[in-house]
């Protein structure tokens, strides 16, 4: 009976995969997009256990990467490292991180009969669906990058997410390796509660402390007793070195010395991405020389500190989709000598329909330096109002340009950018895809 059920499963799986691949061919042939979600959605209707049946075939295991910020960059870096070691890796590289996107990524690497021949599957996963996919995926490694407020209309506060994560992760096999961010109090506490093997990554470079805790902080209270945490210093948002004076809870010790690893790309947040990927790679036994070479030669994922040359001018796209991420991209801009910035704010489903988060962003730092700010997007006037409120009466040298049409906004921003400077573009997620389509002439999704 068992063999019969297994045969039926394989036949149904093969049919589901064949249909999905046909859908992919049609979508790409007609240039309707990258077919990163629809094939998985259709295949799932034919075989509901698709995710489980495919992940079981991954030879060395699934690596799940979850968190609010940094998933795509961390996943791409770890994928690069493993491929340089000679492994075959499946990866949802388009950033489609819900169930259908995960299935589509695995299907891309299967034969028409549903046979998956890869050594690892690196899957970046939306933080809200982690509890739903852990059981079918049975990951070998779980990377927990950070938890910030993001799309409150969908997810709620970070504490509720971390509690759901802890509950479901604790039921996984003891050989599962969990790698949380030691500098995030919520995740540091999560790691301390788990029965599995836990490795931590984090910073130990006080010279990078912020001068003050920014407005966009989410977890400055002890996750154990609720008392205010004492911070020796913060690196970004609530990530830093902390202890609880009430119960003694404190930051977990990172496995790696952060100062021994160079920073990829721009922005301190990318140092965290580096440390997360390196910690996982070392746990998998990758040679250190290969890891360092991959880190030193790494190229950004699309829209994440991605550099382009348009009309002989340098353009840098910095995805900015929540308060913490936007504060960090503003930090990158203000630390440069470039004076032209384009901000694009959309409120579509991939962005989150609640844009009130822009009032938690420290836009004052961007406005006070002056220069030219061009704003666009579906909620262009909300963004323009936020920037106007950031001005000090009579002191601003800001040139604020409001342009509803995105193509015209990009053209205007490029026009105001001298040839020896870089135009920084700070878009939300759907806006980033639109910006790239305008600049490169092709869609990502």
TrEMBL record:
It comes from the Bacteria. One of its GO terms (molecular function) is ligase activity. Residues 65-280 form the Mur ligase central domain. Keywords: ATP-binding, Cell shape, Cell wall biogenesis/degradation, Ligase, Metal-binding, Nucleotide-binding, Peptidoglycan synthesis, Zinc. Residues 319-432 form the Lipid II isoglutaminyl synthase (glutamine-hydrolyzing) subunit MurT C-terminal domain. InterPro entries: Folylpolyglutamate_synth_CS (IPR018109), Lipid_II_synth_MurT (IPR043703), Mur-like_cat_sf (IPR036565), Mur_ligase_cen (IPR013221), MurT_C (IPR013564). Zn(2+) binds at residues 222, 225, 244, 247. Pathway: Cell wall biogenesis; peptidoglycan biosynthesis. The keyword Zinc applies. Its EC number is 6.3.5.13. It catalyses: beta-D-GlcNAc-(1->4)-Mur2Ac(oyl-L-Ala-gamma-D-O-P-Glu-L-Lys-D-Ala-D-Ala)-di-trans,octa-cis-undecaprenyl diphosphate + NH4(+) = beta-D-GlcNAc-(1->4)-Mur2Ac(oyl-L-Ala-D-isoglutaminyl-L-Lys-D-Ala-D-Ala)-di-trans,octa-cis-undecaprenyl diphosphate + phosphate + H(+); beta-D-GlcNAc-(1->4)-Mur2Ac(oyl-L-Ala-gamma-D-Glu-L-Lys-D-Ala-D-Ala)-di-trans,octa-cis-undecaprenyl diphosphate + L-glutamine + ATP + H2O = beta-D-GlcNAc-(1->4)-Mur2Ac(oyl-L-Ala-D-isoglutaminyl-L-Lys-D-Ala-D-Ala)-di-trans,octa-cis-undecaprenyl diphosphate + L-glutamate + ADP + phosphate + H(+); beta-D-GlcNAc-(1->4)-Mur2Ac(oyl-L-Ala-gamma-D-Glu-L-Lys-D-Ala-D-Ala)-di-trans,octa-cis-undecaprenyl diphosphate + ATP = beta-D-GlcNAc-(1->4)-Mur2Ac(oyl-L-Ala-gamma-D-O-P-Glu-L-Lys-D-Ala-D-Ala)-di-trans,octa-cis-undecaprenyl diphosphate + ADP. The lipid II isoglutaminyl synthase complex catalyzes the formation of alpha-D-isoglutamine in the cell wall lipid II stem peptide. The MurT subunit catalyzes the ATP-dependent amidation of D-glutamate residue of lipid II, converting it to an isoglutamine residue. PANTHER family: LIPID II ISOGLUTAMINYL SYNTHASE (GLUTAMINE-HYDROLYZING) SUBUNIT MURT, MUR LIGASE FAMILY MEMBER. Forms a heterodimer with GatD. Belongs to the MurCDEF family. MurT subfamily. This is Lipid II isoglutaminyl synthase (glutamine-hydrolyzing) subunit MurT.
